[in-house]
Amino acid sequence: MTFEPLHASFYEQPTLELARALLGKRLVKETPEGTAAGWIVETEAYIGPMDRAAHSYNHRRTARTEVMFGPSGHAYTYVMHRHCLVNVVSGGEGNPEAVLIRALEPFEGIGLMISRRGPVKQVSELASGPGKLTKALGITPADYGLPLTEPPLYIAEGREPAEIVSGPRIGIPNSGEARDYPWRFWEAGNPCVSGPRRSRTAPG
Questions:
Q1: Residue 57: its pLDDT value, please?
Q2: Which phi and psi (to 5°) does residue 18 adopt?
Q3: Angle 187-188-191 from CA coordinates, rounded to 5°
Q4: Higher pLDDT, 174 or 33
Q5: What is the spatial distance between Cα 161 and Cα 40, in angstroms, rounded to a whole number?
Q6: Which of 119, 176, 195, 196 has its CA 20 to 30 A from that of 127?
Q7: Does this model's pTM top 0.85?
């Protein structure tokens, strides 16, 4: 099955709006082994220059963060705790912001995902975390900087989430007041969401 990548203009919206708009979209990775895809069900926004939890806080510019200073709509991949994570660059050129894709609901290539992840008790566990989803889809650090508007790694239209809720981001205990910002967004009631489903603010 083939999908139509979203236009580059989709990524030009403000980062917090983009983090919400990504929910329900399809994240697709094409590889020689086949195509794997899933609906995005959880994201986290990182607004670099003023966000102590962001890699680009205070405009920190390194070889790793360089892609964040470029145009929106590119992949920012990096390794944390031996797991590859994938982000969507946002904020526009010179304004280093990004949205972390935290969880997917598997849609296509489920057998391929299982072969990469190993046996799981439920399909909902295949991509229910930022490291799980990259392994399941075959996303690697080599995808750093790829435009998300064309194969092999891209985002396509999907479905409309029934309800979106928000709450504090996960795993950033040493980021001062930034750890409490309600910049994690997820589809309410979806079993593929990675983090605590009760840590929520008002529906959005």
A1: 80
A2: -65, -40
A3: 85
A4: 33
A5: 10
A6: 176
A7: yes
